[in-house]
Structures are given as C-alpha cells and as structure tokens.
Amino acid sequence: MPSLATSTPQQLQSLNMNGEDKTRQKTRTCILTSRLHCKSSQKAVSNGLRPEELIQWSQSLERLLASKYGTVVFKTFLKSEFSDENIEFWLVCEDYKKIKSSFRMSSKAMKIYKRYVQAEAPREINIDHKTRDLIRRNVKAPSSVCFDEAQRIVYGLMEGDSYPRFIRSDLYKTLIHST
C-alpha cells in the first residue's frame, strides 16, 4: 500500500478509520505513522502532500476544504468519529450549486433533502426545525441557493467543533511530522 502522504484522494478516502476504542485508535495511528514514513519526504513532496499545504490546513477550515487532499483527509477523520454526514452534506451542496439543468436540479434537491435534511433522514444533519422547514419549502421550487442556510449552519458546526478536533488529532499531527 502506498504511504498516506503520497496517496491519491481516492486511496485516502478508502482507508478504514473506525476508531471503536482507544487501543485500536493508537494501533491505527502507529500503522499510519509507519506508512507515512515508508517513503522519503522528497517523494512525498513531489507526488502528494506538500508541507506548505499541510500547514495551510491549520489556518482555516476554508483552506482545508480548498485542498483536494485536505477534504479527503478531513472526511476520513470525521468518518473515524462517526460524524461525516456534515462534510458529505456540505460537499453535495457544493456540487448541487453547479447544476444548470432545472430537471437535474429538482431531482438532486429532493435526493439531498431526503438523505440529509428531512426528519429521521438516513444521514440527518443537525439543523433547527425552522431551517428544515425553509428547505422543505425551497425544494418544491429548487434553486442553486435552496440549501444555503443549512450549508451555512453545517459549516459553522464543522468550523467550531470538528475542525479544531481535526487539527489536534493524531492523524493531522502524523501528517505534519511525516513531510
């Protein structure tokens, strides 16, 4: 298996980061550290993550999400904490905003609503009922901004909670020390 530092985003995303207990988490961190050090830092710089990019991730959530590797690593971290629905929702909304066809927009809006927004949704995000009702009305006549309020709330939750935990995580520290 390639080292984490030189892996493609798809390879990073496929990592199984379950974290059921502290022992497994420590073992996983040791394995990740070992994988990270398998390749020389020169190869990591030329084929994958650059140290400057990793350092920029610590400056803001916006910078982390602007990086294709950052997004994948952050999503992997959130999966390990069983809280990846927020980043999934945020990313799906970013893709949704790019849709030009009204038919596709309508279909995608309903899928997003059913998967993330409606009460008891399979990947329900944490938003207030007022926002949930607003989106329910918005998806009846969808536009590129119909999920903006929920997306703003979710971004705030990630920025205030998940992102600081990620920056303090063993995963991020291991990546920083490996390049």
From TrEMBL:
Region: Disordered, residue numbers: 1-24
Ranges annotated as biased composition (Polar residues): 1-17
Pfam hit, one: RGS
Domain RGS, residue spans: 60-176
Record-given protein name: Regulator of G-protein signaling 13
